[in-house]
Design brief:
The protein is α+β, with helices and mostly antiparallel strands. The chain contains 2 helices and 4 strands; from the N terminus they run βαββαβ. The chain is globular.
């Protein structure tokens, strides 16, 4: 099952500083790369210019998504979960 995860900048995020210069970047990047390699994150990245991030996530439940992202070293410091919604995929070019 797919979920859409919306995250927002947290209190330790330093506006105007690139991702790679944020405190704890390497640990966060390593954790997120691991989620991609495991097939948990299907798509992800910033949306807009106000510090929001969206991920398309494959997981059994909202609780599973929240538990997985709570282990991110940036959880609640640089990024906080704003919403997790189930997503019914009706159009999927990957199946071609």
């Amino acid at each position: 099952m797919f979920h859409v995860l919306l995250r927002q900048s947290g209190p330790e995020w330093r506006s105007g500083r690139p991702l790679e210069q944020q405190v704890g970047w390497h640990g966060h990047a390593e954790y997120m790369d691991g989620l991609v390699a495991a097939g948990v994150i299907v798509l992800g990245g910033p949306i807009g210019s106000d510090g929001r991030v969206v991920h398309a996530v494959e997981a059994e439940s909202e609780d599973a998504v929240r538990a997985t992202f709570a282990r991110d070293p940036w959880s609640d410091t640089h990024l906080r979960v704003e919403a997790v919604e189930p997503w019914t995929i009706r159009l999927d070019a990957r199946s071609r």
